[in-house]
Amino acid sequence: MNIDDENNQAAQEQPTKSLTTLQRIIGIFSSPQSTFADAIARPNWVFPFILLILITSLSAQLMVPAIIADYRSSERFEKMYDGMVEKGQITQEQADRFKETGYKNVQNFAAAGAGFSIALVSFITAAVLLFVGNIIFSGKAKYAQLLGIYCWGGLVALLGVLVRVPLSLAKMSTKVYFSPAAFFPDSAEKTALFRIAAALDVFTIWRVILLAIGFAALYRFTMGKSLAIIGTMYAIMVAVSLLIPGFF
């Protein structure tokens, strides 16, 4: 029996009893296969979904000073209004007022915007996974199961958020990377190579692997096949982000 077969067999094992919420939280990090098996047998996406929104929103609010610092140092944001002043379209006082309004909007809507984004991405991603699994690969999963897999696997992303917040505040910038992008100079930030390197974030790759484990458990795929499917989907997303910077 090869590794993929062993993984597939383990993924198909159904839990003998329901795991508690705390056991699922711990299990995502210690035994994801059995945790996802429980999440599939007894779908419950509400708790991790709410947790994702709450922690992400709180973290975004805490990082407002770093976000605003990035805005102030952004050539695009500053030069947009400075260029309008040079063309005589607005006065310097108006430009300064517009800038401050923008900073206040960041402060007022950072948490709400982050929470809304997480909710929207969760629902859309689960729908895409359902389409791939049920339509392309003729599976019979339920939307709640895929939403649960995505949200429970998202707990590792929260770990990344909790690590990133203090580092961002200490650096006073959101440009904190847990990927090869950390070794690039600031001047390379707009290059395709930099964005590819940034996509190799440790917590993101970890989440992709967890998603593949859950996908394999749900559709009875080998781990190799599931990882190829989820990895390809992530690669497509990265490719789109290269063509449309900032889209994701």
Structure description:
The chain has one domain. It contains twelve helices and no strands. It is mostly helical. It is elongated.
- Helix % is over 70%
Strand content: under 5%
Q: Structural class from helices and strands?
A: mainly alpha
Instruction: Give the biggest sheet.
Output: none
- Count of separate structural domains: 1
The pLDDT mean sits at 87
Query: What is the H-and-E element order?
Result: HHHHHHHHHHHH
How many strand segments?
0
This entry's quaternary arrangement is: single chain
Q: Which word captures the global form? A: elongated
Number of helices in the DSSP assignment: 12
Taking pLDDT < 50 over at least 5 consecutive residues as the criterion, the unreliable ranges are 1-15
Q: Termini, distance in Å?
A: 40 Å
Radius of gyration: 21 Å
Provide a compact summary of the structure.
By secondary structure, the chain is an all-alpha fold. It contains twelve helices and no strands.
